[in-house]
Amino acid sequence: MRSTLSLIFLFIISVSQLNAQLKAKLADDHFENLAYFDAAPMYAELADKFLAKKKGNKDYVRKAAISYGKIFQFEKSNYYFDQLQKIDFKSLTESDYHMYINQLRMMRQYDQSKSVANTAKNIFPDNTFFQRIADKGTELYVIMKDSVMNEVNVMPFNSDQGDFAPFFYDDGLVFTTKSVNKGFLTGRYAWDHGYFTNILQVEREGESWGKPKPLSGNFFSRKHDGPVAFNSNETKMVITHNYSNKEKNDGVRYLALYLSSKTDEGEWSELKKFPHDVKNANTGHGCFSPDGKRLYFVSDRPGGKGKTDIYYSELKYGQWQEPVNLEAVNTEGEEMFPFISSNNKLYFASNGLIGLGGLDVFMLDLNNPGAQPLNMGKGINSEADDFGLIADSTAEKGYFSSDRGDFIDRIYKWKKDYPSITLKGKVYVNYKPREYLNDQPVCLINKNTSDTTLLSSGIDGSFEAKLSIFNDYALSTEKEFFELDEKVAFSTYNISSDSVIERDLALNPTMITVKLHVVKESNGKPIPSALVSVLNQKTQKDTLVYTDENGNVSIQVKRHQDYWARASKKGYIDGESGFKTGNYSDKYVELELALPKIKEGEKFKLENIFYDLNEASLREESKTSLDKLAQFLIANDLKIELSAHTDSRGSRRYNQDLSQRRAQSCVDYLIEKGVPKNAIKARGYGESRLVNECKDGVECSEEKHQENRRTEVEILEVN
Predict the structure, then answer these.
(1) Distances from the Cα of 96 to the Cαs of 91, 349, 506, 647, in angstroms?
(2) Coil, helix or strand for 214?
(3) pLDDT the model gives residue 432
(4) Which of 64, 71, 419, 673 is deepest in the core (most CB within 10 A)?
(5) What domains, with CATH codes, occur in the chain?
(6) What is the DSSP letter of 697?
(7) Among 204, 195, 126, which residue's Cα sits nearest to residue 162?
(8) What are residue 182's phi and psi, to 5 degrees?
(9) CA-to-CA distance for 613 and 649, rounded, in angstroms?
(10) Is residue 471 a contact partner of residue 501, using CB atoms and an 8 Å limit?
């Protein structure tokens, strides 16, 4: 008898173990096929047994947490995550921690989410989401304060079975819904036992809405249809559909994008698959840029930054190009449901940035390369999933979807009630002390819209204007012979209450007076009636004036320029010097040019003579100095030697030949300008007359070598 009972007992144990194994196998099959609704209770039973006995497979606890999270039963999901973390915190994957933290935030458990993030960041130090939540996960003031600006109302046409992803169409909306049963052959979606999604259209009737009806066209399939989006003139359409993964016996269906165009008869053409879908990966949530030349979409394809990333593809030569990851918005989490407004702002949903919980809606200004994603604030965002936002042409109202309250997706209307923002400033000239300008026109430029408002300064240089929120602005003013000290730009993005922004405009003079004094080198006495030229080295514009009886001359020149001043007088060697006019604090540039008396044997360097590398032909900018030399030689009836010199690089023979040809080029040009042929001779010295230590075998800087590459004039005879 005793042996019989033992056999029965062992049989019961075997059957129990077999049942557990079969349940685990069935649960794994459901889990593998994303049938979380069926998998969750099976894993829960297996997980509870493991937690009670602390033996068996702890992965049941993990999969119970994941499965309940996928069907929005977050309390149960978080319970199993919490139990697993206490048993072995390293057994949670990076994705598990991300899911757990997000679900805690969806339950408003922000402090605990920060604590879990601190644990996760130590295990996964490269994960910026964990770092963000650990550092600032409870700093929600900026998001919360926007609630005063967001007016939100639920739409009357919701089915209360799941409606989401609205899009503007034909003076109404289209949206994706779970409320339509596509037929008994289709069945229900294994994930949560809901109907597969379909597309409905609802028309606006004055201030009310009609009854939603199926959108006509090539949209219907037996599985998921939607979301759908259109280009700006509603002639192009992009839709998300399922396609089958045959390698998994149709157990998992992936999302893919399809495109259609409206025919001349107003019908939608046959759907064509987007050419850059990826096998065994999802591609969906497509939308067009305002000009129709970009297609934005979401994908979990390999190589992305997170679970799902936003990509875009350019339309060039009639073909969609290889997708580009939009790195400015993507995180380790999920970025989804992009929408581009008419003013080129990207609205998208993300659970990888700091938000209130679940998916939050963010905005990125694509007009500003340095912009950062901006949370749209409480009201639009909640502790649940908020996503699929669209904005009208004003960017101040539109629609979005959310599963707030009961985790059922519904469509909401939103609009902004903005604070009052005032700009105040003054415009002045940057003298010491400042000089405030009255009746000075000031331009206020909205960089987002390119609109310009003309203001005028008052008696104390003051001006004032009203601003709009969520815009970048710039201030500008113009006055002859003055320029702005620096560009003035500011933003109203982070303002949530009535505010005053103060910005001043400072002007700097653009002209400066140059005072030149021309004297004899021998005794410093002034030289009257000397010809002075001031050359703008950028524009090559030359200004000619004569000194007064005291050897002085004053001229107005532009600031922020390089100039070359030269003074000449018969009987004297020209004096010259360069100067810059880049200092605003100086009212004058004072310069003295000392002219040596002409005498035999006198040598001077000829400035600004340039040749192309290893060439003897004169460059155009060299001719100004040679023109001056020609005038000097003719006026003073001189005989000179014009010599050219090289640095030590290259062979001596080559340098000798090159310098001779360069000197001859200068002489030939001077003869063309009227200098008698017998009054000038060319001489090349190559590297034989170096002026520094840079001979063969000595390493020197380019500046040092430049000292040796020179053109000189020696006066041989004074007639």
Answers:
(1) 9, 20, 56, 70
(2) strand
(3) 73
(4) 64
(5) 20-145 (1.25.40.10), 147-416 (2.120.10.30), 421-506 (2.60.40.1120), 510-597 (2.60.40.1120), 600-719 (3.30.1330.60)
(6) T
(7) 195
(8) -80, 5
(9) 13
(10) no
Cα distances (Å, whole numbers) of residue 323 to 135, 199, 517: 33, 26, 67
Among candidate residues 455, 504, 494, the one with its CA nearest the CA of residue 472: 494
Contacts of 472 (CB under 8 A, 6+ apart): 365, 368, 446, 447, 448, 489, 490, 491, 493
Task: Tell me what pLDDT residue 498 has.
Answer: 87
- The amino acid sitting at 589 is V
Please name the residues in contact with 79: beta carbons below 8 A apart, sequence gap of 6 or more: 65
Q: What would the 3-class secondary structure string for 118-174 be?
A: HHHHHHCCCCHHHHHHHHHCCCCHHHHHHHHHEEEEECCCCCCCCEEEEEEECCEEE
Note whether 382 and 406 are within 8 A (CB): no
**Distance, CA of 81 to CA of 65 (rounded, Å):** 6
Q: Give, rounded to a whole angstrom, the gap between the first and last alpha carbons of the chain.
A: 148
Other C-beta atoms within 10 Å of 396: how many?
Answer: 16
CA angle 521, 527, 532 (to 5 degrees): 100
d(CA 714, CA 158): 97
Note the Cα 508 to chain centre separation in Å. Answer: 31
Both structure tokens of 269 = 């053409």
Q: Determine contact, residues 508/430, Cβ cutoff 8 Å.
A: yes
Residue type, 269: S
**Of the candidates 539, 536, 426, 428, the residue with the CA atom closest to the CA atom of residue 479:** 428
Cα 502 to Cα 370, 485, 489, 643: the distances in Å are 23, 17, 11, 63
Torsion of CA 291, 292, 298, 300, to 10 degrees: -120
pLDDT at 6: 46
What is the pTM assigned to this prediction?
0.57
CA quadruple 685, 688, 690, 694: dihedral positive or negative? Answer: positive
3-state secondary structure of 263: coil
Chain-centroid distance, C-alpha 694: 48
Q: Could you tell me which residues come within 8 angstroms of residue 30 by beta carbon, excluding any fewer than 6 positions away? A: 36, 38, 39, 42, 190
Query: b/e map of 545-565 (b: 16 or more CB within 10 Å)?
Result: eebeeebebebebebebebbb
Neighbours of 612 (CB within 10 A): 9
**Nearest of 358, 462, 356, 445 to residue 409 by alpha carbon:** 358
- Mapped onto helix, strand or coil, the DSSP state of residue 95 is helix
Looking at the DSSP bridge assignments, the partners of residue 717 are 639
Give the chain's residues under pLDDT 70: 1-20, 146, 148, 181-195, 217-224, 243-253, 584-585
DSSP lists the bridge partners of residue 644 as 684, 711
Q: CA separation (Å) from 90 to 64, 97, 428, 611, 706?
A: 17, 10, 64, 71, 66
Contact 535, 563 (CB under 8 A): yes
User: Smallest Cα–Cα separation from 378: which of 414, 331, 408?
Assistant: 414
Model confidence pLDDT, tens digit, residues 211-270: 999 887 666 655 667 799 999 999 999 999 876 544 444 445 688 999 999 988 888 888
Q: What's at 359, amino acid-wise? A: L
Strands 421-429 and 505-509: parallel
